[in-house]
Amino acid sequence: MIYCVEDEQNICELEVYTLQSVGFEAKGCSSGKELFAELEKELPKLILLDIMLPDEDGLTVLRRLRSDDRYANIPVIMATAKGTEFDKVKGLDCGADDYIAKPFGMLEMVARIKAVLRRCEGRELKPANQVIQRDNLTVNLLEHKVKVGEEDVVLTLKEFEMLKKFLLHPGIVFSRDKLLNDIWGYEFTGETRTVDVHIRTLRQKLGSAGDLIETIRGVGYRMAAKK
Predict the structure, then answer these.
(1) DSSP 8-state assignment for residue 24
(2) How far apart, in whole angstroms, are the C-alpha atoms of residue 50 and residue 223?
(3) pTM for this prediction
(4) Which residues, 6 or more positions from 81, have their beta carbon under 8 angstroms from its beta carbon?
(5) Where are the alpha helices (DSSP H) in 68-206?
(6) Which listed residue, 7, 70, 98, 190, has the most CB atoms within 10 A of its CB?
(7) Looking at the DSSP assignment, which residues form a beta bridge with residue 100?
(8) Helical H runs in the chain?
(9) Taking a C-beta distance cutoff of 8 angstroms, is the pair 194, 177 a contact?
């Protein structure tokens, strides 16, 4: 099931019809309130979420989704008439998996949805992999909790996703472009300092464990391989 959260009835009906025509189950919701009512009945594979909604805006809805363990791992694509880079980054930093700016074609919508579903396949981790320990760093992937020694560390969603990616693939070097595409969920063709800034902040927050994230000059970043 895919939920299309869109208050303009004609657009919502077109999105649902298009998804059904290519083999997806889909249902329209006209507001955040209606979406959460549907979530109580059935969890979807993905949510296509418009930012401009009548009750609460899409970013507020997205924050509610990401703060609730029942819904935190549902892939979300933000849809909005706003097309500036600031709005794009704002939505993605709040936890969106991708961003599509109106007006968009139905074929593009389907392609984006399929790409996000492929990327998020297997997002749920096996219980054995929920807690990762590296030196004095402990990360609970299910509860989104990070500790260095006995001290709790508060990370943003993107910082946590980067740390998780490094921990799950120790020794593997990830380029800035790869991290942007995998973590932020879109092809970024401009400035890549977004990754550098997040890495610097992540290292600072991790304190003594920050050295585990290594810079590979001219390539990207990696988690130090286990000795």
Answers:
(1) -
(2) 36
(3) 0.56
(4) 52, 101, 102, 103
(5) 85-93, 106-120, 157-168, 176-179, 193-206
(6) 98
(7) 79
(8) 9-21, 32-39, 58-67, 85-93, 106-120, 157-168, 176-179, 193-206
(9) no
